[in-house]
Amino acid sequence: MYALMNKSKSVSIAALLTLAAAQQVSAATITFGGQAATDGSNKTSKNVNADNTITSISDGFFISTFDTATAIPGIPGGGDTQYNVAGKSEGCALNSPLEITPSGANVLNVRKGSDGSIAAAPAGDSTCYAYTTPTTVGQPSYVDIDYTDFLANIGNLSANLAGSSINYLGFYWGSVDAYNSFEFYSDDQLVAKITGPELLAQLNGKAGDQVADSSNVYVNIDFSFDEAFNRFRVITSGIAGEFDNIVVGLDQRPVSAPASLAFLGLGLLGLGLSRRFKR
Fold it and tell me: Tens digit of pLDDT for each residue in 155-176?
């Protein structure tokens, strides 16, 4: 089995672009790997407990697992079952702080297990997960996951996090396909993008492989400076784009060491992120 910590592929340091003097410096780093999850979902972020709970809201990390059992206490709005797949979604629901906007009907679904030509659970994941399906195969559909309202009200839940932006995102990406991609926005400004082909090329993965660790990957992204985002988009033009265990970290969280040290030993990867910088 592909070891999450010891065998992470180290390819190259993530691109650091120095702009003209009148512009800001911007950087984002991507690492692959996390820790073994103990709740049956296989892989999760090192920034939450192994059972996919958080210790304290004031720590500034939040997780959405699509399982009612691991909903975050004290976060309003959880328990949304409108995207559950009938007969396949016992114990499943959207957990806050997600605000979901699919581009069309049946584009987003939440379930357990796999069905041929419909969806495959991320490798080793026996819990609830989400997946995207295009309205018309071959034409892109998307799901927007928006944290704007959550960020606006986070100070009411924990005063030390007031005014936060999101500068960390982690997610378990299952059976990565060439037609899957993730885009990250600050309001309507695209700040970064990851595509399935880029990830597969870096890990020598095979598109759609439902078992291999090289195509069932926990992805960590640390955003800095003006790349902090409040919305991301999951895009697919084929069946399907599967993901689970979304973790966000807020920039006002207590930090005792540079964020990159949290991923020491994980190999920084330059995925050729597409970037557009805010002015």
Answer: 998 999 999 999 999 999 999 9
